Amino acid sequence: MAVYVGIDVHKHYCQAVLMTERGQITHELRFDNTSEGASDLIDLAKSVDPNIKAVAEPSANFWIRIYDKLEQEGVEVKLSNPLRTKAIAEARIKTDRIDAKTLAYIIRGDLVAESYVPTRKNRERRALIRYRASLIHMRVDIKNRIHALLDKHELTHTYTDLFDKQGLE
User: Fold this and answer.
1) CB of 57 within 8 A of CB of 99?
2) What is the pTM of this model?
3) 56 contact partners, CB below 8 Å, separation of at least 6
4) How many CA atoms lie within 13 A of 130 on its CB side?
5) Where are the domains of the chain?
6) Using CA atoms, how far apart are residues 50 and 98, in angstroms rounded to an integer?
7) How far apart are CA 29 and CA 100, in angstroms?
8) 69 with 14: CB under 8 angstroms?
9) Rounded to whole angstroms, what are the CA distances from 165 to 149, 154, 168?
10) What band does 60 get if pLDDT is binned at 50, 70 and 90?
11) What is the DSSP secondary-structure string of 24-80?
12) Regarding beta strands 52-57 and 3-9, do their DSSP bridges make them parallel or antiparallel, or are they unpaired?
């Protein structure tokens, strides 16, 4: 036996549906997109059945907190690819409750079009690289603004690089 959990993830909240193997919906709930909210969901799901299988439909990077908490608690969790999950993408009526219910049916039938989820270590590395790249971009932008300001006021310099040791002095 197992309980199947469909989770529609948003920035501040998530909508979830808990479903039995027979397709009976036991709970529909909305909870905060926090570790505490995920813990409450896990506790509720374990009260139905300790074997939990979950699928989350992501929204930007808001899924990471929920995914990590579920994985940490030993829940078999998958991340649905929203573009490849046609049942949700092509629905005429799109609400969070309907999306969560559809996700529960999809995980129950083992029909999830999964998205690749890098390991936590690789996600942290990628975040660090993105942050470093943004700092470099900011540095280049500031240097270009300084050059533009000097050009605007017709100020010249004799240095090969205005930002090397001599130019900065």
Assistant:
1) yes
2) 0.75
3) 7, 8, 9, 14, 63, 66, 67, 70, 77, 78, 79, 80, 103
4) 6
5) 3-108, 120-168
6) 25
7) 10
8) no
9) 20, 22, 5
10) confident
11) -EEEEEEEESSHHHHHHHHHHHHHH-S-EEEEEE--TTTHHHHHHHHHHTT-EEEEB
12) parallel
Q: Which two tokens stand for residue 10?
A: 């948003």
- Closest Cα partner for 102 from 37, 10, 23? 23
Encoding tokens for residue 162?
């205005």
Q: At 168, is the pLDDT very low, low, confident or very high (cuts 50, 70, 90)?
A: confident
3-108: CATH number = 3.30.420.40
For strands 52-57 and 76-79, give the pairing. parallel
Quickly tell me which residue has 């959990």 as its tokens.
Answer: 5
Q: Which two tokens stand for residue 54?
A: 């979950």
The strand ranges marked E within 71-126 are 76-79
Alpha-carbon gap, residue 62 to 139, rounded angstroms? 28
How many residues in the chain? Answer: 169
Residue range 141-160, pLDDT digits in tens: 999 999 999 999 998 888 88
> Which region holds residue 113: left if phi is over 0, alpha if psi is between -120 and 50, else beta?
beta
